[in-house]
Write a structure and sequence with these properties.
This protein is mainly β. Helices cover 7% and strands 49% of the residues. Strands 2-1-24-23 form a four-stranded antiparallel β-sheet. Strands 3-4-5-6 form a four-stranded antiparallel β-sheet, with no helix packed on it. Strands 7-8-9-10 form a four-stranded antiparallel β-sheet, with no helix packed on it. A hairpin with a 6-residue loop joins strand 1 and strand 2. Belongs to the TolB family.
Length: 304
Amino acid sequence: MLRNALLTVALLMIAAPALAGQVYVLELEGGEPRQLTTDEGLDCGSPVWSRDGKRIAFDAWPADQQLTESAVHVISAEGGPVTRLGPGAVASWSPDDSLLLCHSFVPDQWIVVMAADGSGAEVLLENAFSPRWLSDGDSFAAMMMSGLVRFDLATGETTLLAKIPWSQPGFSYSATTDRFLVVERRNWTLSVVERQGDSDRWGVRRRWPKTPVAAAGWLGRQAGRIGQTSWAPDGKRAVVAIGEVDSDCSLFLIDADTQEAPKPVPGVPEDWISCNPNWSPDGKRIAFVRLMPKRQRLNDRSKP
């Protein structure tokens, strides 16, 4: 039962079976989205920049299959050949870019670590998803049914940081401010999780918007759903995917320390379905996934 519940949560990262994604990169200073992946036989998701900004890892699976068949791939940030590393999804680079974390679906929902070339894959944690490497390099955070946890690589011990059950896959961690941005599916709220003073205790500092009614006003939509998040390098701003339904989402910028309403990411066409954003380490670019109807992709290759 636990595995099925976790799998259900993970599958929510798919917008809809009739939609398929490709990875794009946007230059924030007046640029236009540039398509990075071009293999029409693959559906792509969850791009993440390497710490040096030279590579992007992402998950991809055959277009005629399910996300459970996903594998981690790597491509140069400038484009070029794609390298398949091994089974998994929602990758995270280690601080020195030598290792990758991901979660797998087969034979079970596990957190796996592998070398940056895909070798030496090893299971670290069961019944967890969406790993995020922490700045110390000796631990990572992940989501479990109980909430947000920290896993110590040296001891193998798991510590509960915040009780946020049924969170959305794709939370983000800021090494600059040492805090997390998590989406709670219960009321589609964003939660900032950070240390309480100088102690080792963690807690939810704020949630917003606090109610579904407030969410509708804050998001400017009838009903708000929030997807993956990514901190800017300053650890204050973030980019999030927001939509009325899972198959109709756009990218917005937020300030995690104010009550200001989200602002659309400039440069992304309003009619695009965009999700899975990830801010580059230099703060100048955002990688994201553009979703299109599968039949449209074949007729839309020449469009930006």
